[in-house]
Amino acid sequence: MTDIPELSHFDERGASRMVDVGAKEITFRLARAENIVRMQPATLSRILDRTVAKGDVFEVARLAGIMATKRTADLIPLCHPLGIDGVDVSIAAVDATTVRIEAIVRVQGRTGVEMEALTAVTVAGLTIYDMCKSVDRTMTLGPARLLEKKGGKSGHFLAD
Questions:
Q1: How many domains does the chain have?
Q2: What is the set of active-site residues?
């Protein structure tokens, strides 16, 4: 059996707690995440032609992802509120039925921004669904996953 790392969001009694990062060094940190949205070809065609009744789907989803990044601590219990330095959200069609969303989040801070990047791509995907659900209820979201993490004590992580 392999060693399981200690769960830092629980104290010795099992009570939830926010990890104290006050003694950690401020360093550059980056996280990159992606989410996949699958839909009918006609739906993606309408998105690309900008004929969806609710507006420019990719631009609204991009803005939603950026806004979600800044609200992660309000959405995920025990996440630290961070002064985000930068967020890039890109959205592109991969093929006739697939959209790929990628977020890159940067900060000079004491804790990483993985949750912020994952929140960005998840909310952007949900926004695409919301804007297109009247024409395609078969859309699927995911997987959403962390692609890369830089900075901090644990070093550089790059997904396979």
A1: 1
A2: 130
